[in-house]
Amino acid sequence: MKAKPFSLGRASALQPDAAAVLSGLPVAVAVLDAENRFRSVNPAAEQFLGLSAVQLDGKPLAELIAADHPIFLLIEQVRRTELSVADYDMDLEGPRFSKHGITVQGTRLAELPDAVVLVLQDASTARSLDRQLSFRGAARSVSGMAAILAHEVKNPLSGIRGAAQLLEASVGAADRDLAVLIRDEADRIRALVDRMEMFGEKPIAREAVNIHRVLEHVRRLAQTGFAAAVRFQELYDPSLPAVWGNRDQLVQVLLNLVKNATEAIVDANVEAGEITLMSGYQHGVRVALPGSGRAQQLPILVVVRDNGPGIREDIRRDLFEPFVTSRASGSGLGLALVAKIVGDHGGLIEVESRPGRTEFRLHLPMIPEGIRPPDNE
């Protein structure tokens, strides 16, 4: 006979105020019975596991996580010792989720024999915020360097380029190629300095932006150009509110991510290369960046996913730092600029990568109350 479900939200098990607290907790809380079947979850656990409370009710944990995973040893240790047990930096992967660096805490529940309460804390957002603050500091360094280069390099480059043009018109055919080479290299260096100047601390003009129009625009640009051989899949939430941001800068961010995804697929000769563009609404992501004066909700999620070879592990942690690149011809400024623009929006950017799947996730703010949404929203 099936046991009667135990609910965190029932007044018979908990005082109403305690149930409300559990429902409002930003960390995932789940109750497992003696057979490691889900008996109850709070909303944060639903989001963490990618399934609703109804879908999880009675489902064995082993259907979501491999039966030989260390989390089962932790659960058995809780039952055996009747003590609270914690493990840190654990990786959890299932059909609907892939989490890394998770803190798992388990404790007994007296109201249900051999039941275990699991608390799952995902520190990835906090780590992303810490790294993003480092990126912003690195961006300021690049900005200062660009100011020096603009003054000390741009003027001499103009003279070098002008001299190369004069030589190109006056020398013989044998030397003309050298003059063209000098001119082209001067243009390349100037373009690099111009890109570095984009890291300057300038306020952005914001408005209500329909992110789906931005994504569609980026897809069209890519498919008619550099990504003509790549298949696109679009999975959008039609009820998503507008983003509070700068349309042109968001186009720049997403075009850069799509271009990188395409290059990864093409360079690795991936058959049936595919890029997936997704959007969604998520609760509970709230950060306060230094100088903002208040915490900001980041409920809008935008994802760019590809089925390329993945990002090398040795550069993954520093991927958004200036001058970090896996391409021999890359400058290493593209993703650093992406991180800066997202940070200027008060948002967060995260990346998860393994062979066959790389996913960049943008967490962005929605329009404040009282702001008119874009037309045809």
Q: Give, in order, the helices and strands.
A: HEEHHHEEEHHHEHEEHEEEEHHEE
Q: Helix segment count?
A: 11
The count of β-strands is 14
Just give the CATH class of the largest domain: Alpha Beta
Kindly give the count of domains.
3
Cα-to-Cα separation, first versus last residue: 51 Å
What fraction strand? Answer: 15-25%
> What is the CATH architecture assignment of the largest domain?
2-Layer Sandwich
Radius of gyration: 26 Å
Q: What is the CATH superfamily label of the largest domain?
A: Histidine kinase-like ATPase, C-terminal domain
Structure description:
There is one protein chain. This protein has a five-stranded antiparallel sheet with strand order 2-1-5-4-3. It has a five-stranded mixed sheet with strand order 7-9-12-14-13. A two-stranded antiparallel sheet has the order 6-8. The model is unreliable at 1-15 (pLDDT under 50). It starts with 15 loop residues before the first helix and ends in a 13-residue tail after the last strand. The longest helix has 29 residues, at 124-152. It has 377 residues and is α+β, with helices and mostly antiparallel strands. The chain has three domains: 16-122, PAS domain (Beta-Lactamase, 2-Layer Sandwich); 127-197, Orthogonal Bundle (Helix Hairpins), CATH 1.10.287; 207-364, Histidine kinase-like ATPase, C-terminal domain (Heat Shock Protein 90, 2-Layer Sandwich). Strand 1 and strand 2 form a beta hairpin. It has eleven helices and 14 strands. It has helices spanning 16-24, 43-49, 53-56, 70-81, 124-152, 154-170, 173-197, 211-223, 247-267, 313-316, 334-344, and strands spanning 28-32, 38-41, 85-93, 98-109, 115-122, 207-209, 231-235, 243-245, 274-281, 286-287, 296-297, 300-306, 348-354, 357-364.
